[in-house]
């Protein structure tokens, strides 16, 4: 532990305040640290390890692909990329996919695609994109500009021009910011990092209709909500709408880095030379993606996310009622749930839960987020709820300001 920590202290850039634990292996919904201590993992690599840890199908697919062909670049065809693109388009409203390596990169691609649409289809010289307050779209310059949280932007001005922010779930406020230069709206079906805030169905229906009327692209950031997390394969299915474009990453590779920009045919405007990625969609990452997709189907994991999500939501609701002085409410969809505290004490709850063997992650200062692997069992949900309840019961009532 100490030598690992020292290496980080001296040689890894200090971009994270890490918890004092070194993880060495995992199995299913459990992780084991360097001291042999087990933790129930309701973080899942931040909504990424959909199949949990060391899933045999994913492990075998990666090992087999690694022994055969890892990478050749996008100068050539590879079977795995074609098959993953076919699975994603067969199972969504999209017709074509561009593969990359992360959520930020997928959104970066969506921003470029929206600008090309604005310039070439709508004839806008300087196209503008609308995104929302408390959104999260990534850490590259363009995506951190789209992200509606000044704390992520503060040292990095000048930001990228061409972005406007409006409150989430507020159609009139959004409409008021639309101009002749607006080419797209970029928005999450459920805001994740911003506090697990579900999109309002009525808002999204109005937005969809309005975007179609105005020929504005509706781009959904499904980086966290995609791949079954919410109890449906895509977050947009809860909203009764179809996006023109959506982005994926987190769970797509089950922990192997891969992102995807998915578009309907009429908005799939990139031509050779417009956009690229050296690693994007390489056989190793796509073999992992295919193993995830096949396992979602074979093990009915989207349905599991729905049923276990209902169990988790019901348990959190009970906890919110029992601890009314600490907890304001619970919210979320499927296995993307948040417990909204009365005070900014999410970090405290996360730390205490970790001491009790349960991994949680905050989503802003007041929200404790629960995003377990989609393979989670009823027993594991009950175990997590019991630990969380115990932590809240022992939480000191007052905070010193
Ligand atoms: C995590 C996340 C991103 C950024 O993904 P990275 O892989 O960290 O670049 C973008 N959008 C949403 C909604 C996310 O949750």
TrEMBL record:
Its EC number is 2.6.1.11. GO terms for cellular component: cytoplasm. Pathway: Amino-acid biosynthesis; L-arginine biosynthesis; N(2)-acetyl-L-ornithine from L-glutamate: step 4/4. InterPro entries: AcOrn/SuccOrn_fam (IPR004636), Aminotrans_3 (IPR005814), Aminotrans_3_PPA_site (IPR049704), Class-III_PLP-dep_AT (IPR050103), PyrdxlP-dep_Trfase (IPR015424), PyrdxlP-dep_Trfase_major (IPR015421), PyrdxlP-dep_Trfase_small (IPR015422). N(2)-acetyl-L-ornithine binds at residues 139, 277. Binds 1 pyridoxal phosphate per subunit. This is Acetylornithine aminotransferase. It comes from Gloeobacter kilaueensis (strain ATCC BAA-2537 / CCAP 1431/1 / ULC 316 / JS1).
